[in-house]
Amino acid sequence: MGQVYRVLKIEIPWRLVEERPDVLDLVTRIHLATEEYVRRLLKEITGQEEPKLTPEELGRLLTPDRRELAHKIIEEVFPKYNLKKYFIDQAKVFWHDIVFFKMVPLKAQLRVENERDFGAPIFIDLRSEILKVRRLKTFVVRLGRNNVTWIKKRLEEGARLKLAFLGIERRRGKEPTYGKLYVALVFAREVTPVEPRTLVAVDVNRLDNGAVIGIIRDGKLRRTLRLPEDGVIRELRRLHEEISRLEERAAREADPARRMLLEERVRRLKSKRFRKIRDVVTRIAKEIIELARQNNAAIVVDVMDYETYLERKQSGEKGDKKHLYDGLGRLRRRLQHLAEWYGLPYLEERLYSTVCPHCGAKMEEEKKRIMRCPVCGFSDARDNIPLLWAKRRYWELIEKIKQPAFSSVPAAILLLTS
Ligand SMILES: [Zn+2]
Questions:
Q1: Centre of ligand 1 from the C-alpha of residue 358, in Å
Q2: Quick one: average pLDDT of 27-47?
Q3: pLDDT level of residue 418 (50, 70, 90 thresholds)
Q4: Domain 198-229+288-351+393-417, architecture per CATH
Q5: Residues in domain Cas12f1-like TNB (predicted)?
Q6: What's the gap in Å between 346 CA and the centre of ligand 1?
Q7: Could you tell me the residue ranges of all domains in the chain?
Q8: Spacing, Cα 396 to ligand 1 middle (Å)
């Protein structure tokens, strides 16, 4: 059994924020106080000004004996930002978690029927479909259909609302600015990991080629499929050819006004592409998770091309392929996160696509995306090779999955704060 989390981020419409500057002001103060607290605490512990730490390293540093130091810093920092007792007390309770969240967890109540209102600072009424923010003059946000449906689904899955955050998106850049305001609701439930006999092997080499998925049971490859459907892939390619064309035209354009217009069109198409990729990722992830749930399967993701991507990113390669790889990173995080929620084991493995799954020799590209082994003569589509490796390593992977790996920092939280 383990506790798992999912987060619903509800954006506060800008119109409401404008009407109520005190909300923006409060959230900004919480944000600044939290940042200063985390900075000072980490400096005291490590002696460094801006230590770069992984979540695991952070977890090891924040031992219970740091608690008093943390409380002292909170008591000094929070009043500077005019944050009163409620926030100081909450920060003290969660002194450890705040370092990961960079936000102060608030008490939250979800009213499904007619339960008594306990006056929590974040109050969600599912029947009237509203969310109230208190601790200042009550501020009401309409929930929206999708959010209500999402919450109801989580309740059906046995989750409950654990806590909430008031957050503000920070836009990175030379001068960091602040963007959208949101309320994040953290749902938690207990889950018993499944003991799989089936693997759903996922080979995503590049988003514009789609993902190839294999279902492997008892050492046999039972089914393969490709996601998303061809139409979606073609549309992505078209979009991104159009962007390249317009960018080239803009670079050649001598007239500044016309160049600006072209650049504006590029910007619009790029955000359209970003949304499209995000939707594709959401859909692929949903289908893979559904397959895994139906089969009580573990998910094994081939990470080879992602490593190639990181190498390229570090070597400074940019250009139009970058966004596709970014989509890949997003897909991995989403799969991991949803797998955790449904108790499906998740594993990232290097599954070869150019090594012969029969004899281990290096394969050669015979024609476009068809690989052939020069030693034993075996040949197949390049996309199928990783699945054959997953099949060959089936028993080993099943054993590996049996070692449970509940991360100390919930993926949902990392997803929210990344
Ligand atoms: Zn071979």
A1: 5
A2: 94
A3: very low
A4: 2-Layer Sandwich (3.30)
A5: 329-383
A6: 29
A7: 2-191, 198-229+288-351+393-417
A8: 21
